[in-house]
């Protein structure tokens, strides 16, 4: 039969050693920060002299973000109702140019208007959104509606072509001026291109609107004959 093993308890007393000399604390100073290409690793370089550390940081560039929203430049062209206009309105013959008499706003210099020739040139290559609004009527003598001739139309096109990408037409059956609006987008590939807004009706149209002094405002924007709003959309 096995005996139980004997257990012993030893108590040990270890004296405390003498106090050592005071240590010297390390110092840390930030050095320079260097930016490297995005495909390189970030680093912290510790340059030590004795207990002094100088930390230099190497930081990679961030990845290129998506382009921000495009600033849309715009221009505002207008032909106002002149005081000396005849009461019957300003006549524009068939295929004649509709007058463009003033650049009211064009901060970025998007276009050049020839007010003598009533033409427009664009200073930037790219896409343009254009809205043309004209107040006019056609002279009608027959009280019966004739769809073959009782209408008027406008178009914005490159001079010397029939490339009307911005245009509108409307049936009329009276001698009362009304408003027509044409909207669209053109691509300008050459700064030397010249554009025109023309009467595409088979007969003359007459630009007209209420007399300003009859309105409850003194702002000539309220009765303009022609307005053209241009927005530059950028280039591909």
| Beta-strand content bin | 35-45%
Order of helices and strands: EEEEEEEEEEEEEEE
Q: What is the architecture of the largest domain at the second tier of CATH? A: Sandwich
Given helix and strand content, the structural type is: mainly beta
Terminal Cα span? 101 Å
How many DSSP E strands? 15
Q: Which term fits the overall shape? A: rod-shaped
Number of helices: 0
Number of domains: 2
- Residue share in helix: under 10%
Mean pLDDT: 85
Draw up the topology in text:
Elements: E1 27-36, E2 43-49, E3 52-60, E4 73-79, E5 90-92, E6 102-105, E7 111-114, E8 119-122, E9 126-137, E10 151-158, E11 164-171, E12 178-188, E13 194-199, E14 205-207, E15 226-234
Which labels suit this protein?
Jelly Rolls; mainly beta; 7-stranded antiparallel sheet; 15 strands; 236 residues; 5-stranded antiparallel sheet; rod-shaped; 2 domains
What does this structure look like?
The chain has 236 residues and is an all-beta fold. It has strands spanning 27-36, 43-49, 52-60, 73-79, 90-92, 102-105, 111-114, 119-122, 126-137, 151-158, 164-171, 178-188, 194-199, 205-207, 226-234. The protein has no helices and 15 strands. Strands 4, 5, 6, 9, 12, 14 and 15 form a seven-stranded antiparallel beta sheet that branches. The protein has a five-stranded antiparallel beta sheet with strand order 7-8-13-10-11, with no helix packed on it. The chain has a three-stranded mixed beta sheet with strand order 1-3-2, with no helix packed on it. It folds into two domains: 27-60, no CATH class; 73-234, Jelly Rolls, CATH 2.60.120.40.
